[in-house]
Write a structure and sequence with these properties.
The protein has about 325 residues and is of the alpha/beta class. The chain has 13 helices and eleven strands. Strands 1, 2, 3, 4, 5, 6, 7, 8, 9, 10 and 11 form an eleven-stranded mixed β-sheet that branches. A hairpin with a 2-residue loop joins β3 and β4. The protein binds pseudouridine-5'-monophosphate and manganese (II) ion.
Length: about 325
């Protein structure tokens, strides 16, 4: 239940405020990918390029973070740089962590779950990320299931992603989403994407390649009163996709190291992401940048289509 006072935490950037006034569609972007998902300076350059791509499509990007005790909807360039340079000193904010950063004033980057919550408060329907969190391999023992999945079950925001990395158990992640009634749409591929690799081997629920069809699906879902999000998966562009066997090798090695070092809790995902980057000699980073930029285009087109699609029936 949204409290009326929740709006008081929001601070819109100048550009996002202008877009709201003009009725231009907004696309939310997460900041954990900037602070914890990519190294400096590639993270800053990618964040800027992603924002520019969304503007080129006619929508306005709204990068979400917590700074100075406010939920920021849109960051100016200087703030984006602060976040990109902050590294580990920036908190990683999922649902349970948002109050900590708001109460203390510490800077924080929002995960998929954290960004969905903030996007919803700001009235933003579409959110672009790289990959979602999910059910970790070995979750039967560790209970490690990303809070992203619970958020998708409860918060009505469309999340555009290149599927999920196979650091996760993708099959179990899709089972979990099915149990919680979260539709998984795909575009440009029949399968749910596996981040660096185009296909995960698991089919998405519905393949909808064009934005108006995606928008009609989402409007039908929400106008039925079905709370909860939608996942729209789209694969990394062919030219930047990496061979599955090679990616599997890096992931297996990273997982073994995490296990040997006893890494747990919210540190697991950033640890694995950083190790894969090192083990791949930077090749994974190039693919990561390409897929995020592609997701931004798909997301911007969806935001425009949703703006043209009235609530059904
Ligand atoms: N997967 C990626 N890159 C990322 C993340 C996930 O390929 O940067 C980030 C996202 O912000 C996601 C978060 O919401 O990690 C999930 O963390 P956890 O597994 O601790 O819930
Ligand atoms: Mn976890």
């Amino acid at each position: 239940m949204t409290q009326p006072s929740a709006q008081a935490w929001l601070q819109f950037s100048k550009r996002v405020s202008a877009a709201r006034t003009e009725g231009r569609p907004l696309v939310a972007l997460e900041s954990t990918i900037v602070a914890h998902g990519m190294p400096f300076p590639e993270n800053l350059r990618t964040a800027r390029e992603v924002e520019a791509l969304i503007r080129a499509e006619g929508a306005e990007p709204a990068t979400v973070a917590v700074m100075d005790g406010r939920i920021r909807i849109g960051l100016d360039d200087e703030e984006l740089e602060r976040l990109a340079r902050g590294g580990p000193s920036v908190l990683k904010l999922s649902r349970r962590d948002l109050p900590a950063a708001l109460a203390s004033g510490a800077p924080g980057a929002t995960t998929v779950a954290g960004t969905m919550i903030c996007a919803r408060l700001a009235g933003i329907e579409v959110f672009v990320t790289g990959g979602i969190g999910g059910v970790h391999r070995g979750a039967a023992q560790s209970f490690d299931i990303s809070a992203d999945l619970q958020e998708l079950a409860r918060t009505p925001v469309a999340v555009v992603c290149a599927g999920a990395k196979s650091i996760l158990d993708i099959g179990l992640t899709l089972e979990y989403l099915e149990t919680h009634g979260v539709p998984v749409l795909s575009c440009e591929h029949d399968e749910f994407a596996a981040f660096f690799v185009r296909g995960s081997g698991h089919r998405a629920d519905y393949r909808l390649d064009d934005a108006p069809a995606q928008a009609r699906f989402i409007r039908a879902q929400w106008s039925l009163g079905l709370e909860g999000g939608v996942v729209l998966s789209t694969p990394v562009p062919e030219a930047d996709a990496l061979p599955r066997e090679e990616v599997d090798g890096w992931i297996d090695a990273a997982l073994r190291e995490a296990d040997a070092q006893g890494i747990g809790g919210k540190a697991v995902t950033p640890f694995l992401l950083a190790r894969i980057k090192q083990l791949s000699g930077g090749r994974s980073l190039k693919a990561n940048i390409a897929l995020v930029k592609h997701n931004a285009q798909v997301g911007a087109r969806l935001a425009l289509a949703l703006a043209q699609t009235p609530s059904l029936p």
